[in-house]
């Protein structure tokens, strides 16, 4: 492909199928590797909580690990601003080349990082800094790759071509899960000691491959055309967000689709893993295997819905996905509970656990500095229940009343661990999900349904975002709402939902977060989002 500008239409018509495939392959492969780096942390959150947050109680450690996971998402909008500005000023190619180098180096360094046992509080601090560097990199990566592919795509095929970029997040997750599973197998009992480092160190190989591939790419023809015509934007941030006509589109994009799309994606591919392992007590290796199978089955849906959006429009596909998410999350996750741990499901129905206590004597089970003492009888009861993964409900007792725990018809006054263990065992509560009783087929079916819904929201998204904004500010304008949605609304899903479950004892209570977000996005999208399928981005 020539580096010289030519009319975009003629450039598209002159492009060979091989050239188009090269653009899609090179952009997608690099993005797969970058998502691998980013998602690797999520796949190893439980291990990392033990290695880097050992100075606090178990519940707090896991919440901290999820917060460190979320830290990468917090800074993604800032990465979108920094690299989006560079992408609109100096070009798409070199900007997202820089982002993948930054991501690869930060990920590799996580594999070399000493643990809490070795260097104390410095370990989690450095870990969070590295996660933030990953977030900055990803903030610039996605917008560049999506814009680059869309500006090379022929008219009528932008949804199909950019859907390959959309599928990379799922493929990156799949790659991370496969590498983690392989490392667990080969390192055995040593995985949680040192084997967990191998997937992070492996990223340096992927970095070399992706850097080499992307060096061979040429600049976007739309950017070259704009630059040669002297229309390049000198202040893309100010033009994107300082003018109401552009800012209005940014806000509509954020609240109509990006927020809702984000929680559908992370509910289907991250929260479901936490739900299976932390709340349903499924063996992590089995949970990873079932998720891998589901992801393999579900990945083509991203391409399907990108293609479908070229035929029927972006908005109908997106809105239907949001509607299904809002309506089906509770039934799907209740189905997962039933088919994953039927003994737990049956016990919780036949002998529900209720904690009756004076609310003033119960503390939220989160210790940000590791110094709080949860030593009231109510705190001790709830700490015990949370550590055992037992669902419970709370009831308010009159002020000054001692805590009382009901396990079905059994009443236990105060905190008596031996009596509690005996009562929950007698009621049939299992210590973990029995692999033999897990209905693996139905678990996979339900996860695939979640991925199907996520694909409806995510598959057409890149094409729609590119079509919403003009070439001169496209990289900046599309990147910020995307990464606020995915970084803040989606990235905090596991953390917020897990904390809500811990607080209430209801394993399904955390689902209110994604349901509210998708519901709001559905309403805003129906009334404010325009259809963009026929937009001419050459003139846009």
TrEMBL record:
Record key words, sorted: Cell membrane, Membrane, Transmembrane, Transmembrane helix, Transport
Record domain Major facilitator superfamily (MFS) profile: where: 23-533
Main localization category: membrane
Membrane-spanning residues: 23-48, 60-82, 94-113, 164-187, 193-217, 249-274, 286-305, 317-337, 441-466, 487-505, 511-529
Membrane topology reported for the UniProt record: Multi-pass membrane protein
Subcellular locations according to the entry: Cell membrane
Keyword presence, Cytoplasm: no
UniProt protein name: MHS family MFS transporter
């Amino acid at each position: 492909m020539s580096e010289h500008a030519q009319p975009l239409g003629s450039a598209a018509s002159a492009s060979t199928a091989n050239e188009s495939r090269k653009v899609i392959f090179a952009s997608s492969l690099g993005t797969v590797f970058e998502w691998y780096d980013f998602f690797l942390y999520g796949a190893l959150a439980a291990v990392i909580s033990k290695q880097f947050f050992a100075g606090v109680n178990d519940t707090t450690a896991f919440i901290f690990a999820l917060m460190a996971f979320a830290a990468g998402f917090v800074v993604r909008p800032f990465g979108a601003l920094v690299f989006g500005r560079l992408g609109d000023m100096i070009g798409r190619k070199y900007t997202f080349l820089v982002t993948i180098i930054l991501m690869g180096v930060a990920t590799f360094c996580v594999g070399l990082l000493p643990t809490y046992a070795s260097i104390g509080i410095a370990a989690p601090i450095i870990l969070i800094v590295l996660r933030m560097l990953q977030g900055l990199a990803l903030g610039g990566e996605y917008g560049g790759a999506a814009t680059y592919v869309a500006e090379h795509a022929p008219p009528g095929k932008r949804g199909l071509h950019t859907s390959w970029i959309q599928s990379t997040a799922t493929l990156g997750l799949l790659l991370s899960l496969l590498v983690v599973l392989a490392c667990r197998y080969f390192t055995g009992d040593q995985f949680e000691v040192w084997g967990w480092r191998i997937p992070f160190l492996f990223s340096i190989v992927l970095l070399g491959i992706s850097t080499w591939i992307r060096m061979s790419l040429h600049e976007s023809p739309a950017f070259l055309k704009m630059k040669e015509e002297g229309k390049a934007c000198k202040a893309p941030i100010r033009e994107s967000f300082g003018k109401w006509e552009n800012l209005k589109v940014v806000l509509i994009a954020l609240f109509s689709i990006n927020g809702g799309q984000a929680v559908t994606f992370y509910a289907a591919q991250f929260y479901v893993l936490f739900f299976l392992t932390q709340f349903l007590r499924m063996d992590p290796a089995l949970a990873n295997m079932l998720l891998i199978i589901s992801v393999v089955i579900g990945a083509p849906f991203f391409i399907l819905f990108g293609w479908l959006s070229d035929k029927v429009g972006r908005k109908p596909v997106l809105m239907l996905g949001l509607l299904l998410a809002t309506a089906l999350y509770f039934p799907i996750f209740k189905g997962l509970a039933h088919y994953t741990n039927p003994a737990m499901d049956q016990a919780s129905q036949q002998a529900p656990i209720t904690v009756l206590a004076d609310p003033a004597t119960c503390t939220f089970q989160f210790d940000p500095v590791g110094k709080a003492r949860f030593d009231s009888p109510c705190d001790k009861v709830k700490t015990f229940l949370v550590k055992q993964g037992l669902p419970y409900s709370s009831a308010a007792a009159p002020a000054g009343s001692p805590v009382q725990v009901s396990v079905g018809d059994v009443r236990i006054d105060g905190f008596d661990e031996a009596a509690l263990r005996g009562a929950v065992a007698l009621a049939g509560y299992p210590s973990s999900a029995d692999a033999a009783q897990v209905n693996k087929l139905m678990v996979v079916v339900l996860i695939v349904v979640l991925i199907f819904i996520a694909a409806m929201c995510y598959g057409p998204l890149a094409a729609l975002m590119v079509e919403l904004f003009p070439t001169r500010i496209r990289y900046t304008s599309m990147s910020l709402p995307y990464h606020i949605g995915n970084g803040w609304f989606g990235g905090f899903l596991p953390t917020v939902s897990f904390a809500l479950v811990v607080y209430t004892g209801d394993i399904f209570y955390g689902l209110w977060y994604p349901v509210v977000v998708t519901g709001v996005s559905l309403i805003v999208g129906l009334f404010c989002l325009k259809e963009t399928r026929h937009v001419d981005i050459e003139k846009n």
